[in-house]
Amino acid sequence: MRVGVVMTVKNEARLLRQNILYHLGLGIDKVYVYLDNTTDHGDQTVSDLKAVEINNSVSPESYKNVPYLEKFWSNAAVHHTARQCLNTYDAIQKCKTERIDWLISLDADELFLTTKDQRQSLKEFFIAASNEGADIVNLKPMEVIARKTAYKNVMQEETLFKTQKNFNSKFDQIYQKIFDPYQNSYLTVSYWLGHTMGKGAINIQSSVIPNNVHRYSAIDGSELNIHNNGYILHYHSYDFEDFIKKFQNFKTHPDTFLSGNKIEDLKSLWIKLVNDKHYSRERLMEYFEKNLLFTPSKLKRLNQTRMWNLLKRKESAVISIDLPKQILDQVQH
């Protein structure tokens, strides 16, 4: 059982080597990295790793003769997610010739995890998925809890994650207030800040294509055998520098997703704020600390219910995952 990872990256030099070393330590056989207009020379940080293949994002012209990819090659000039889907499709073709059985599609700020208890190996996970005839395995996200303004190697240092955005009990829901300096008011939002759709692992023997960066469909339109087990650890805006980098990158993106849906109000606010020349780094740092950083008191509230902590939480909002630390501690010493 051979497993690969594909990533499309832009200016992820701080994360890329950590990410790949973790996945190689987990048992990944091949990593396909596609550079998408990156300028930070992140590829040089992993050039010594033999299991890594580095390419630029594929040209839309490469797949203009493939009609079922039209949504991607026709939008590739504008939407980075369209380029990401083309890169994933390109990696699928490479896997077929290199005898890779499964391909996990991730971002540089995401790590694959088999189970919450971290006991099942990568190979065991995909042998089970193959034996059950899965075409796709959807991977549920768990989002990092940012407890520092600056990490050196966040994937090695941070072990606390948010378990999920929504909970069965209304008393378990967790909200926070994010300040909007342009309206001089607060937005009430979930404590969960990143995407909730997760990512996917692709059975290379199945005839599938990306539907978007999160989901897949059969080329012939038939129903896929989709399993929902496995996780990704998402290091979303994990410290101040990542917050700045992420929303500076988003400045050049359209204000709609590839689907045509408008981007979220909070994302729009942070794109505007981070790229506002009237806001110094000092003011942005203060904003990050007050609105995104999980101080001890703010972290404590994740263990409380909305009823003044009189009711015990039915579902935990926080989990400790230390497998990345374990693996990275070994390979970096």
Structure notes:
This protein is an alpha/beta fold. The chain has one domain. The protein is built from ten helices and 14 strands. The strands form three sheets. Strands 1, 2, 3, 4, 5, 6, 7, 10, 13 and 14 form a ten-stranded mixed beta sheet that branches. A two-stranded antiparallel ribbon has the order 8-9. It is globular and about 55 Å long. It starts with a strand and ends with a helix. The model has no long low-confidence stretch (mean pLDDT 95).
Secondary-structure blueprint of this entry?
Elements: E1 3-9, H1 13-26, E2 30-35, E3 52-56, H2 70-73, H3 80-98, E4 102-106, E5 110-113, H4 122-131, E6 136-144, H5 154-157, E7 160-162, E8 175-180, E9 185-190, E10 199-203, E11 208-210, E12 216-218, E13 226-234, H6 240-249, H7 265-274, H8 281-291, H9 296-301, E14 318-320, H10 323-331
Parallel strand pairs: 1-2, 1-4, 2-3, 6-13
Antiparallel strand pairs: 4-10, 5-13, 6-7, 6-10, 7-14, 8-9, 11-12
Helix pairs in contact: 1-10, 6-7
